[in-house]
Amino acid sequence: MLRDELVAPESRCFLNTSTGECVKVCIAELHDHELLAVTPEGLLVLLHDRNHVRLLNPLTRHLTKLPPLTTLLPSEDHGMFDEDSDDMDFIAWGSGIASDDSTFVLCFDMLQLLGTAKPGDDHWTLLKYNSDGITVAPLLFEGSFYCVSDDGVLVLKIGADQPPRLEVAAKMEDMRVSRIADSVHLINNCGELMLVHRRRGLTADNKSGSWYDTYRVDLDTRTLFLANSFGGDAGRAVFIGMHCSLSISLEAFPTGSISADTIYLSIDVGERERLEVGAFHLADGSIERPSTYSGGLVARPHTLADCLSLANAVL
């Protein structure tokens, strides 16, 4: 879902990153709902009166009601439902439909809690977790929820006879992540689970000191492997933000508009403006400056990379 400050309040443009096709849709529900997230399936997670959760298919207009948030958050946290509370607590990226096609996973990573429910349920099943402050972009990948802690890449297990629980899916034995300076981002790279370790490390070749170590997550061997390519016949590139990520194929967009095997920083990543880091090339570790930047937002005219960097940000 793209951003455009000049568009009508209830109108949104949706970009198909596989074909490059863009569709404009009028969504009347945005008049009285807050947008919590877009799921991997393209559904919108909406919040009405800061309590009632609804799932909207923006193309078919089908609306599914889910249990209210008062059944998920402990009573001591119900003050967050007040209009003057911090809206950022209600960012729900990492949410989506589980692999059983009937359970919905609702993730509030800033609160470090998960809720699972099915349409028709009257309450959420709560799971609190500790990401140790290093995962900023949890991910629903092929119907399973993933996040990262000091223990490694964690996956949410949902069973009929057991409460939801997080288990280690892959270990990070040789990776050292600073909770102050670093962050870890999970990516669905066209059906392949990948991980980006965003870190600082001054060298002569990279004046900004910004590095983005990229790994493939092997769920069979439960290990990580360093990677210097995102693959794809025509090449792929990845946009990372502080709450979500986006992988695209270059063949869907004009030649030269996006570089292969490159990590583009979304507008909400601090070093894009502070250190003028617009993109990081995996092959040689070189940094590309952003084309335009001002106060965290890009100026017109947008390049395609600017548009995708803005669309992938949570502001």
TrEMBL record:
- Where does the source fall among the domains of life? Eukaryota
Pfam families in UniProt: Beta-prop_KIB1-4
Checking InterPro entries in the record gives: KIB1-4_b-propeller (IPR005174)
The residue ranges of the KIB1-4 beta-propeller domain are: 27-280
Q: What is this protein called?
A: KIB1-4 beta-propeller domain-containing protein
